[in-house]
Amino acid sequence: MISKRESKNLPYVLTVMDMGAVMLAFSTALLLRFNSPILLVSLNPTHIPRYLYLMIGLLPVWWLNLAYFKLYSSQYLLHGNDEYRRVVNAAASATVHTMVVIFLLKADFARGWVLLSWVTATVFLLGGRLLHRRIHRWLISREGGKRSPLILIGANQEAKRLADEIGSLIDLGVQVAGAVAWQGRESTPGLKILGSMDDLPQIIDREQAEAALVVPSALPAAALQGLYHKLSKAGVAVYISPSLFDIVASRAAVLPFSDLPLIRLQEVEFSGIKYAVKRTGDFIGAVFLLAALSPLFLVLSILIKMQSRGPAFFTQERVGRHGRLFKLYKFRTMVTDAEGRQEALLHLNEATGPIFKMRDDPRLTRVGKWLRKHSLDELPQLFNVVGGRMSLVGPRPPIPGEVAAYGDYEKRRLEVAPGMTGLWQIRGRSDTTFDEMVRLDLYYIENWSPPLDFYILLRTVGVVFFGKGAY
What we know:
By secondary structure, the chain is of the alpha/beta class.
């Protein structure tokens, strides 16, 4: 979703940034390949023009791949997860086409340079897109947070959730002016009602709305007839929240059936090659991190034991994939009898749903509070990942008491292995409500892919470093 006034120039801005990132990636790969102290190989100066001509000639190839993955289409520009996933896929596709071009030219170019270009281009393109988001957000804040007005067509709890979600995402460049109710009498707490459908033209003019988000679940079928034409005629960009498809849009396929199009929802696969890739990546990543962080494990263990009596590690029974129980490992952040004290603190619970959270939990030790702020207490879960009971990325691992309160909707979280981090981690951590956490977990399950995992892991580093939303 993007305002009309921004959509006109944005593809050109992104094209310049992307092509600059690709050219910088090519140059960096050239330096790494031919000036590496490990490879002990240097580039013949007479070959530099040849590489330079190739790099310039490959720019259209990379641009076409980025365009093919709709990275310059306004409907995809400002959707973070989808955008980053498309960048990773486009870079891989462009690298294949690069090798084809080199083969057709029958030219002698280093294969190591091509592979390094793939890695550096992926990193630089992702960095450029992230930088663009930061600049976009800064420009909006510089204007006093001014964003293009958007109106919701329909007023119910789903419309309220959408309004809250849009309001929290500055990157979208729009703000909700309010909702247009079916008859103007509906009342949804926390949602501003602008009027009824009869007043729609006047509301659009008064609010200077550039976009409208239709919420079908808040409108009778009769209200949808001719609504798109009415909004388009008023010069308003139209978006639709398809309720059921909130988390399954990526699996929807339109099938022609006579003159009536049908939508088929494809099954989510949690096995096969893709899942084997995920498990292999989890194992290799966890083993590498355990080896690299072993000195930190020792230091943290000593600090915990110096702070309070008891073991450095804490184990707790959690529910894993398909409801299987397992022992989860963490660094101990509380006093040893913390679980016994929880019942006395239940009236101070700040979380929603069947989970317990307190911003200033008196059971936390000083070291434990710092560990939690930066999620360092979660590091021993790497042992769970190596053992296959957890993944690096996935839904938050629940305790049996939480699962006992689950309905069928929430139980879908148990279809995959729980993760050390996830969308809930990068979208607020402890500040995320239970319902929002479940929604994010189900979105992850429905849209899982290796690029999405890669994006979440990258974002987790920044979230953990700044300690955002942790307590």
